[in-house]
Design goal:
The chain has 51 residues and is mostly helical. It is 75% helix and 0% strand. The longest helix has 38 residues. The termini are far apart. The mean pLDDT is 83. Keywords: Membrane, Transmembrane, Transmembrane helix.
Length: 51
């Protein structure tokens, strides 16, 4: 029972750490790409006009 409890706690901590890492690293990256698209430094296929 102790091993099962320790496994559950370790699993929950690992999941929490991954969520924290994705949140702290992913949000600035997404915001950076959005800002570069807004300023026109990155041209995406949706913003390219067809001739």
């Amino acid at each position: 029972m102790l091993v099962l409890t320790a496994g559950c706690v370790l699993s929950a901590l690992t999941l929490a750490c991954w969520n924290l890492a994705i949140f702290t690293c992913g949000i600035p990256v997404i915001a950076g790409f959005w800002l570069l698209r807004r300023t026109g430094l990155i041209r995406t296929p949706t913003s390219v006009t067809l001739k």
